[in-house]
Amino acid sequence: MTENKYPEYKIVRVTSKRQFTIPKRYFDVLHIGEQVKCYLEGKKLVIEPVHENEFWDFSTDILRELVAENYTGEDLLREFESRKYKAARALERMVEEARDDAAAGGGRPAEDVFKELLGSDDV
Questions:
Q1: Are residues 92 and 43 in the same domain?
Q2: Are 69 and 111 contained in the same domain?
């Protein structure tokens, strides 16, 4: 039996500004850069590194939402395909609009675009 050289968990302090420090050994092992992806999995907060050279595949996010919405079986597959198609089309439209804006000498700040798309001020 091999021992895990990293403890199963480490307790860290959360500041009044909702900030905490990722322990160095976890930071180093995961090769965390300037950004992390956070999401809820049940009652757990999951933090994953985001690497610039990785393509962001929305499939996991779509499936996570569908499972949380209690989709199962064939309904899950149908809804997954539908949402995956809609996400791809939305990205294509964004690229087309960005190209058109750039060609016309205009454009919008990325932060505004993401707020509009995500419907959130947490961008």
A1: no
A2: yes
For residue 36, count CB atoms less than 10 angstroms from its CB and return exposed for 0-12, middle for 13-18, buried for 19 or more. Answer: middle
Alpha-carbon distance values, 68 to 62, 64, 71 (Å): 10, 6, 8
Binned at pLDDT 50, 70 and 90, residue 22 comes out as: very high
Q: How many domains does the chain have?
A: 2
Report the pLDDT averaged over residues 6-23: 88
Rg over alpha carbons for the chain, rounded to the nearest Å, is: 19
Residue 56 backbone class (left: φ over 0; alpha: ψ -120 to 50; beta: rest): beta
pTM here?
Answer: 0.42
Residue 107 sits in the same domain as residue 60 = yes
Same domain, 47 and 83: no
